[in-house]
Structure to design on (248 residues):
């Protein structure tokens, strides 16, 4: 029996990349999964893939930056699987530019999707979790939210914001047995990073003590731990999955 049997999980941005691998990993452990993504087709592909391997999944198209969509995503979990135990806020975007050149739209959009998106889902999901007196919320931050990065002021600020949001939610919800943690990946090979120039990739890897990029699986296995009863006494933490790139 899987460690997440009878649990219901929402994963945002699960149409591809790290989110898809998280959805597959949680479903393998027995969770019923709601695959949410702004891209309806990729969301469906992820859910179909899980179902054809014997897992339980449904997909829903939704934009996390919309409070109405966030509510619909939570309602989908209740309608299809009659509950909600795990929320993984993974949806994220980049619009890189130097501060001098960054447009207001580039700033606003990244904060709206990455930070407000997580708030929207937490707000909707917590209504259910508070009543059930159980919940695991896992927010995907980034090491650049800890160390900053040239050309990523908007993205780094959104990911640093995720850490403050995580700790505040952890304190607000602790008395109801809801654990809230963040995972901060380092350099992970996905569609988001695949198109970086080779020299940039090499420069990144030279700063990683383990001397390799991480995989989506490296992140997903930590999310699985934080979603499971094995982490019941952990809340308000930021777990870096970065090959040692940033050591405090
Ligand atoms: P990705 O671009 O491959 O996938 C992101 C997914 O989110 C896509 O399927 C996209 O359609 C979806 N999405 C985008 N905007 C959305 C919205 N408004 N509403 C709902 N869904 C939306 O990215 P990835 O590399 O898999 O990254 C996943 C998460 O991990 C992101 O939060 C990212 O910031 C974070 N992260 C990635 C890395 C990395 O090296 N790849 C490092 C640190 C953190």
């Amino acid at each position: 029996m899987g460690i997440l049997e009878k649990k219901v999980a929402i994963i945002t941005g699960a149409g591809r990349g790290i989110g898809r691998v998280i959805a597959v990993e949680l479903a393998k452990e027995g969770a019923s999964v709601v695959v949410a993504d702004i891209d309806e087709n990729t969301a469906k592909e992820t859910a179909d893939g899980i179902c054809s391997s014997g897992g339980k999944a449904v997909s829903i198209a939704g934009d996390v930056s919309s409070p109405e969509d966030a509510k619909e995503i939570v309602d989908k979990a209740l309608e299809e699987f009659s509950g909600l135990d795990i929320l993984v806020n993974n949806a994220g975007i980049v619009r890189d530019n130097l501060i001098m050149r960054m447009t207001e739209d580039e700033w606003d959009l990244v904060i709206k999707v990455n930070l407000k998106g997580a708030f929207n889902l937490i707000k909707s999901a917590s209504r259910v979790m508070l009543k059930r007196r159980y919940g695991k919320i896992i927010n995907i931050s980034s090491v650049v939210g800890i160390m900053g990065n040239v050309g990523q002021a908007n993205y780094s600020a959104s990911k640093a914001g995720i850490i403050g949001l995580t700790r505040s939610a952890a304190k607000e919800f602790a008395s109801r047995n809801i654990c809230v943690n963040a995972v901060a990946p380092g350099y992970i090979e996905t569609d988001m990073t695949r198109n970086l120039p080779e020299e940039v990739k090499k420069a990144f890897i030279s700063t990683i003590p383990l001397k390799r990029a991480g995989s989506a699986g490296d992140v997903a296995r930590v999310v699985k731990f934080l979603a499971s009863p094995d982490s019941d006494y952990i809340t308000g933490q930021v777990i870096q999955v970065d090959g040692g790139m940033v050591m405090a």
